[in-house]
Write a structure and sequence with these properties.
single chain; 333 residues; alpha/beta; inorganic pyrophosphatase (n-terminal core); Diaminopimelate Epimerase, Chain A, domain 1; 2 domains; 6-stranded mixed sheet; 12 helices; globular
Length: 333
């Protein structure tokens, strides 16, 4: 491998002790399972699958798995069907768990990660309780995929295949808003540059990530006909369960049109507000995006969290909607 850019060398040097421990653990364990968060997005699946292929390519003798819930749209269009490991497999606890893109244990898609003998984590989110023996945490990173890819790229003597690089790149693009969010840094671009050297085809990646169907136009038409804008430029649309049924979409797909408002001059922040009628936890799930202001504090106040320009929140019912929108609106007053 040619000499890596200064940004990657500096980054990997900053985490050299954590990287060394994780590499030693990967070499030590013959069984490895890679985890990520529930209701996965591009970054969760991209970081998980990029690492999966990287380890499979460089350690073909090891037994390596990836687990979690499938995505209603990304699977199997972008990512393979998630593996299913039964309880019998987990007996003995002699395996390594690698957790990507999730900080807290209640957000990990498969709770059996706790049965692992050793747990490591790559993440860029705040967390309540440490779950790993070794963590690589960078809250300023644009994506978890950027962090995991750095770990892999800086591992001397290892190969970054096209299939691994394609997944990492997908995760980076997804969580950086196509390199538009303020969390995008020189390091983000340096990692992307090195991934390009594997031979990935950008046109192919972007086409697969953002491909639309004729049916999706119907949903977009509804959103454009039923959005509101607050006095200081907070745009939002509601998708009640009944409307989801009429449009033929699931709750998970409610937020897929949120970025339709990203380039409108008069709009400063934008939200999708989707009803989730789950019997265990009924609520309205909110995806929030922002041009400049940090909206993560509002998200945290309303039962969520995330990043400065891309966060998630929730309200229990529509009686809370006006108060939530006012909190966002006040940011731009």
């Amino acid at each position: 491998m040619s000499r890596l850019p200064k940004e990657i060398l500096d980054y990997s040097n900053h985490f050299k002790h954590e990287y060394a421990k994780i590499r030693a653990a990967i070499k030590r364990y013959d069984k490895i399972v890679i985890y990520r968060h529930i209701k996965p997005d591009f970054d969760a699946m991209g970081s998980q699958m990029g690492l999966y292929y990287f380890l499979k390519d460089n350690f073909p003798e090891k037994e390596i798995h990836f687990v979690g819930d499938n995505h209603v749209s990304f699977t199997p269009r972008l990512f393979p069907e998630t593996e299913r490991l039964n309880d019998e497999w987990h007996k003995g606890r002699n395996f390594l768990a690698i957790v990507c893109d999730v900080g807290d244990k209640d957000r990990i898609a498969d709770p059996r990660f706790a049965k692992a003998k050793y747990v490591v984590k790559f993440d860029h989110h705040p967390f309540k309780e440490e779950i790993a023996k070794v963590s690589v945490l960078d809250r300023g990173a644009a994506s978890a995929a950027e962090i995991v890819a750095d770990f892999c790229l800086s591992w001397k003597g290892m190969t970054m295949s096209e299939r691994a690089a394609e997944n990492f790149y997908t995760g980076i693009v997804g969580d950086s808003g196509r390199f538009l969010f303020s969390s995008t840094s020189a390091h983000t671009f340096s990692v992307a540059q090195e991934l390009l050297k594997s031979g990935i085809q950008l046109s192919k990646i972007y086409q697969r990530m953002y491909e639309k169907t004729l049916h999706s136009l119907k949903v977009q038409s509804y959103v454009l006909s039923h959005f509101d804008v607050s006095p200081h430029g907070v745009s939002y649309y509601l998708l009640p369960s009944k409307i989801q049924e009429e449009l033929g979409i699931t709750t998970e797909l409610g937020k897929e049109n949120v970025n339709m408002f990203s380039n409108i001059k008069e709009i400063n922040a934008w939200c999708s507000i989707t009803e989730d009628p789950s019997p265990k936890d009924p609520c309205w799930r909110i995806s929030i995006r922002s041009k400049e202001k940090d909206i993560s504090g509002v998200a945290f106040k309303w039962g969520g969290g995330g990043h400065a320009q891309a966060s998630g929140a929730r309200i229990d019912d529509l009686s809370q909607l006006d108060a939530f929108i006012k909190d966002l609106d006040d940011l731009f007053a």
